[in-house]
């Protein structure tokens, strides 16, 4: 039985892969997490305080060569986390992260590590291991569904102490 929760997804996507992943996850959550309220916001339209809204925060970004260095966050996610929200205190907020990438790059899907680092450095609480989606996300819906189930189980209020 699912308790009603509010999941806020903040994502950045340049060629549409991360957006596809977020939409596929939301699709599977419709059956796994019936009754949940889910809101998705693009990083470039997100203000620091928005990261505090909802019961659970999910950050999703692909890996880019932001600042001409490979292995970085998407530029919009970088600006949000390391400029606009650089002093934000997540104050124990339950969080989850998805990072995308391509196996042909040395720092494959390193965005996931950057997101995890932001959450822990800003006192958020990671409730599931970060998910890395490597290469095109099409056909990886089952991995998303399995991870989504983990996220739902970890989001139950009884698990928050
Ligand atoms: C210019 C450029 C730089 C990239 N740098 C990396 C990288 O350092 N590491 C990695 O794993 N993937 C890298 N990628 C691959 C993207 O992360 C991957 O295509 C991702 O699925 C794109 O997601 P998006 O469309 O949501 O932005 C790069 C892609 C491009 C075009």
Automatic annotation (TrEMBL):
The keyword Flavoprotein applies. This is Flavodoxin. Belongs to the flavodoxin family. InterPro entries: Flavodoxin (IPR050619), Flavodoxin/NO_synth (IPR008254), Flavoprotein-like_sf (IPR029039). Keywords: Electron transport, Flavoprotein, FMN, Transport. PROSITE patterns: FLAVODOXIN_LIKE (PS50902). Its cofactor is FMN. It holds the Pfam family Flavodoxin_1. GO terms for molecular function: FMN binding. SUPFAM superfamilies: Flavoproteins. Residues 7-152 form the Flavodoxin-like domain.
